[in-house]
């Protein structure tokens, strides 16, 4: 279902049916991170800011609690989850037009990424900072810097 929501939403279950299935699944096992992520995608589909935020935060909480993130990404898994949680939260707020909250979440992601010297996350933050700045005012200098850094790190 997650793949269908990302690639061809018309083939996925209707939002209400999918959420009902997810709620049943999470009722018996609330620690399934993937189910929270799918609930996040489903909530985005119907523009439900409260449910999408709730599901996104639970997704990252479950990654940290189960240790799944640290197993798949080396020793710094918890910190990685935290900085990408903040980055995703910033993207979510930006999508819903909550620019002040997006800026605060983005500042937190930048702070955590700087502390762990994660240049890839910082570059993603810079890209989102540019998007956020464009929503508020035009900034060509930020775009040029972002493109140069993206090329340096081999990012698209």
From TrEMBL:
Keywords: Cell cycle, Cell division, Mitosis, Ubl conjugation pathway. Belongs to the APC5 family. It comes from Calyptomena viridis. Residues 36-135 form the Anaphase-promoting complex subunit domain. Pfam families: ANAPC5 (PF12862). GO terms for biological process: anaphase-promoting complex-dependent catabolic process; cell division; positive regulation of mitotic metaphase/anaphase transition; protein K11-linked ubiquitination. This is Anaphase-promoting complex subunit 5. Coiled coil: none annotated. It comes from the Eukaryota. GO terms for cellular component: anaphase-promoting complex.
